[in-house]
Amino acid sequence: MVSRLTANLQLYSALSADEQRAVEGLVASTRPTVAGEDLVVEGDAPSHCRVLLEGQAFRYKTLADGRRQIMSFRLPGDICDLQGLFLGMDHNVTTLCAGEVALVPHAKLAEVMERHPRVARALWSTSLVEAAVFREWMIGMGRRTAYARIAHLFCEMVVRMGAAGLARQDRYAFPITQQHLSDALGLSAVHTNRTVQALRGEGLLSFQGGDLGIMDWPGLIAAGEFDAGYLHQASKSA
C-alpha cells in the first residue's frame, strides 16, 4: 500500500529504482483511520508527515462563528501535511471515511530529499500543483456560476481519482455530502442541492450516497468550463 506515495510522486517526476526504494523506505508505521478523524489540527507542529494510503480526507479552516471553508480534498497517495516539514500547521485535515495513513518522520524525509534531488523535486511539484488547484478554486468562487463551480469540481475529482486508480467503469467513490460541496464552493445548501439536481436532470452525472457516476463526460466538461491543464496530469478519456 505504501506504493501509492511512489505512484503519486511519479505523476510529476520519473523516479529510478533506487529513488523508488528510498520513497518506500520513508514510512515508519501505518495505522487505520475512522470517518471524521482529525489527521491534522490547526496549530500543530508535527514531527511526522501523514500520507493517505486508503480513504479520502479534506483540508479546511473554520471561522470563529463555526462557518467552515473546505480548501481541497485529499486522495490516496497524497501527503496531508507536507507543510509541517517547514512550518506549523495553519489549517485542519479531517477524514471523509475510514481508511489508512502512513507516518513519515520529518528527519527521514529531509534526509531522502537531500540524497535524492529528483524525489525532492517531485515533492516540490506536488506543492506547486496544490497551489494551482487553490488558484483554480479561487477563480471558480470569484467568477464562475454555481452550476459551473459544481461541475468543475466534479471534473477535477474525476481526473484526480482516475490518476489515483480509483476509477471503476466511470464510477467513483467520492464520499462527500452536499454540505461538503457547499463548504468547498461557497454556496448555500439549498443552492447546492438545486444545482446538483440540475446536473443530474441533464444526464451529466449521478451522485448519491458517496457514489459518483459520469454519464456524459464531454457535457460535464462543457458545463464546468473545465481544462485539466492546471492539474498537470493526463486528462481522463471520454
What does this structure look like?
β4 (57-62) and β5 (68-74) form a beta hairpin. The longest helix has 27 residues, at 117-143. The model has no long low-confidence stretch (mean pLDDT 93). The protein has helices at residues 3-9, 17-24, 106-115, 117-143, 146-163, 178-185, 189-201, 217-224; strands at residues 29-33, 38-40, 48-54, 57-62, 68-74, 92-95, 99-105, 171-173, 205-208, 211-214. Strands 2-6-4-5 form a four-stranded antiparallel beta sheet. A three-stranded antiparallel beta sheet has the order 1-7-3. Helices cover 42% and strands 21% of the residues. With 238 residues, the chain is of the alpha+beta class.
Overview in brief:
By secondary structure, this protein is an alpha+beta fold. The chain has eight helices and ten strands. The protein is globular, with a radius of gyration of 18 Å.
Describe the secondary structure blueprint for this structure.
Elements: H1 3-9, H2 17-24, E1 29-33, E2 38-40, E3 48-54, E4 57-62, E5 68-74, E6 92-95, E7 99-105, H3 106-115, H4 117-143, H5 146-163, E8 171-173, H6 178-185, H7 189-201, E9 205-208, E10 211-214, H8 217-224
Antiparallel strand pairs: 1-7, 2-6, 3-7, 4-5, 4-6, 8-10, 9-10
Helix pairs in contact: 3-4, 5-7, 5-8, 6-7
